[in-house]
Amino acid sequence: MPEIGNVPENALFGKYELGRLLGCGAFAKVYHARNVCTGQSVAIKVINKKKLPNTNLMSNVKREISIMSRLNHPYIVKLFEVLATKTKIYFVMEFVKGGELFSKLAKGRFSEDLSRKCFQQLISAVGYCHSRGVFHRDLKPENLLLDESGNLKVSDFGLSAVTDQIRPDGMLHTLCGTPAYVAPEILAKKGYDGAKVDVWSCGIILYVLNAGCLPFNDPNLMVMYKKIYKGEYHCPKWMSSDLKRFLSRLLDTNPETRITIHEILEDPWFRKGGYKEPKFDEEHGKDESLPHVSSLNAFDLISFSSGLDLSGLFEDSFDPSTDCEHFVSSESPEKLVEMVEEVAKGERLLRVKRKKKWGVELEEENGSFGIAVVVYRLTRELVVVEAKRTCGDAQRYNDIWNNKIKPALLR
Fold it and tell me: Which controlled-vocabulary keywords does the entry list (predicted)?
């Protein structure tokens, strides 16, 4: 690979040089890549939008972006940024050198102490997710990576759910997951608690770590499902009695009595040898050089750009269904806000009110019409201006925004 600072002609977005293929799925490929500016190794997940057969899968992609953007934990794979073209989406992620936990297990089962270490890290990550309203729903060794120090990293949030997907009955209802790791209440199709489902999967993973095989397995899928539903499994003779007891609480077929994350953290087997939660900075993507500017990250951009095509941001975009418009400017946020206020004050019927740090609300004195204008930092050189009609007449919006404010901002 070329030296740092020398940008190859074929570098992705002029920033990343793609390397070897790390993995391949039905709709995505994962490559090792290098940031040509810093030399940092990254993994880039490339999703071909044309190969996504339905809108549900595109929703999964959007959800994965949204979820990973809010997670920053030492045992969760970090998502650095999202890039996109008209045909492809690129997840630029932390490169985890050790590969899949599944590959390590193929070489032989783990000792009880090593199983405990991995399980502790898994629970730390899963508990963190749950505290932020995120449920993974597809935990399995194939979705767990190991770094060069042997520390675990949870990946692949494509099937994750968030609290706003919970129905009025307080349950999730989407059937998902990998058959051998699926919880019995999902098979019952009566709705389920996302946190309890993840705990069940963690129990399966712990069993696999120390036993070297699945607790519920059969060539006939229906037979396997019956075993899961009844909780029929056997522990190998080398398992300690404490681990067997602990597994029985994790693999409790009744979600109401199944052990919780809080109870796991207090369990004697789990705490053997001492356990401390990792200390880390929970701030994610904070740019200390821009302390006073509302930060707009790549995950927000996705929602601003039709069809996940970020190139559309560099042209005017307007959504008539919401009277919401975005465009990119190279002016400073301070200057833009001042310009909005200046134009608004010339319209004597408008009341001007600051909103957040870099936002302005404009309203008619009688409250019959309003516009909200917010400026977000995109890069050091660029910002995104968002304008939205908040109330009142569409014709008045067009007159004030398109004929007076916007032209002033685009000069």
Answer: ATP-binding, Kinase, Manganese, Nucleotide-binding, Serine/threonine-protein kinase, Transferase
Residue 368: Cβ within 10 Å count: 12
Do residues 65 and 290 lie in contact, with contact meaning Cβ atoms separated by under 8 Å? no
3-state helix, strand, coil split of the chain in percent (to 5) is 35, 25, 40
For residue 283, the model assigns a pLDDT of 55
How far, in Å, CA of 284 to CA of 357, rounded?
20
Tell me the torsion sign for CA atoms 141, 142, 145, 146: positive
Q: How far apart are CA 224 and CA 232, in angstroms?
A: 10
Confidence of residue 387 (pLDDT cuts 50, 70, 90): confident
Q: What are phi and psi of 375, to 5 degrees?
A: -110, 130
Domain 16-94: give its CATH superfamily: Phosphorylase Kinase; domain 1 (3.30.200.20)
Tell me the residue ranges of DSSP E strands in 95-151: 134-135, 144-146
pLDDT tens track for 238-274: 999 999 999 999 999 999 999 999 999 999 999 998 8
Report how far residue 319's alpha carbon sits from residue 323's, in angstroms, rounded to the nearest whole number.
Answer: 6
Q: What is d(CA 169, CA 193) in angstroms, rounded to the nearest whole number?
A: 10
CA distances in angstroms from 68 to 56, 79, 146, 162, listed in the order given: 18, 6, 18, 11
DSSP-derived 3-state class of residue 303: helix
Q: Is 352 helix (H, G, I), strand (E, B) or coil?
A: strand
Query: What gap in Å lies between CA 382 and CA 332, rounded to an integer?
Result: 8
Class of domain 298-409: alpha beta
CATH number belonging to the domain at 101-271, selected among 1.10.10.10, 2.70.70.10, 1.10.510.10, 3.20.20.140: 1.10.510.10
**AA letter at 341:** E
* Cα 162 to the center of its chain, rounded Å: 10
Tell me: is residue 86 an annotated ligand-binding position. Answer: no
Backbone CA torsion sign across 228, 234, 239, 241: positive
Distance CA(376)–CA(366), nearest Å, equals 29
Rounded to whole angstroms, how far apart are CA atoms 47 and 83?
A: 11
Catalytic sites, residue numbers:
138
Given a cut of 60, whether residue 54 has pLDDT beyond it is no
In this prediction, residue 369 has a pLDDT band, given cuts at 50, 70 and 90, of confident
